[in-house]
Amino acid sequence: MPSKIFFPVRLFVLLHTITFLAVGCGRQGKPESVRRYASITGLKTDRLGYYKKLHAQAWPSVLQKIKECHIRNYSIFLKEVNGQHYLFSYFEYTGTDFSADMKRMASDPETQRWWKETDPCQMPLPEAHAKGVIWSDMEEVFHTD
């Protein structure tokens, strides 16, 4: 008698496992968790046109490296406040080791060459300048999907 009950339970578990795996395979590209990052920096007024031109024609190799490092939905916005230009950056990270992915990006020769073009256009905020970086991290205070 127990074997008659045991078989349907095993079949039920097996079918649900197959269904779960099939649904999971269909969800490829949809990570379980996404971390959002935002940052800000200044933009030198005399470099505004060049910076916009660079980003209007972003290098394919740099865009590919961004994807390889698990970054998606990457945007940079521009805002002028009292004659000073600021850049606001936002992206979503879908990987599991942010530090390793950022090191991989930083070691990429094409990305380094890109940064040699963009970095002189930017003007770090005092906090970032003191740390020797260009972009200042921002705190997320609200999010909704």
TrEMBL record:
GO terms for molecular function: racemase and epimerase activity, acting on carbohydrates and derivatives. It comes from Sphingobacterium athyrii. InterPro entries: Dimeric_a/b-barrel, Rham/fucose_mutarotase. PANTHER family: L-RHAMNOSE MUTAROTASE. This is L-rhamnose mutarotase. Pfam families: rhaM. The lineage of its organism: Bacteria, Pseudomonadati, Bacteroidota, Sphingobacteriia, Sphingobacteriales.
